[in-house]
Amino acid sequence: MAINIRRAVKDDCPGMMDLIKELALYEKAPEQVTVKLEHFVESGFGGNPVWWAFVA
Q1: What number is the average pLDDT over the span 5-12?
Q2: pLDDT for res 48
Q3: HSE-up (13 A, CA, CB side) for residue 16
Q4: How far is CA 53 from the centre of its chain?
Q5: Torsion sign across C-alpha atoms 20, 25, 28, 32
Q6: Average pLDDT over every residue of 26-48
Q7: 6-7 and 54-55 strand pairing
Q8: How far apart are CA 46 and CA 41, in angstroms?
Q9: Mean pLDDT in residue range 4-15
Q10: Would you tell me how many other CB atoms lie within 10 Å of the CB of residue 44?
Q11: Upper half-sphere CA count for residue 7 (Cβ side, 13 Å)
């Protein structure tokens, strides 16, 4: 089975946010996720990105 690893793109953000929220729920801290999707996308793909990610 081949796994394709690539740099994340804007269209990956909703799924990434879902994973972040699921992890927070598992860690019993869902209230700690306060970022909105629009800000999440802008902070990763705007003019001065502060994060990057890979997806598989």
Answers
A1: 98
A2: 97
A3: 20
A4: 8
A5: positive
A6: 98
A7: antiparallel
A8: 7
A9: 98
A10: 18
A11: 4
Could you identify the residue written with the tokens 């902070």?
43
Closest listed residue to residue 11, CA positions, set 35, 36, 40, 34: 40
Q: Which structure tokens are listed for 11?
A: 């269209």
pTM of the model: 0.87
Average pLDDT over residues 24-48: 98
Would you state the pLDDT for residue 17?
A: 98
Q: Where are the domains of the chain?
A: 12-55
Please report the DSSP string for the chain in residue order.
Answer: -----EE--GGGHHHHHHHHHHHHHHTT-GGG----HHHHHHHHHSSS-----EE-
* Residue 26: per-residue pLDDT: 99
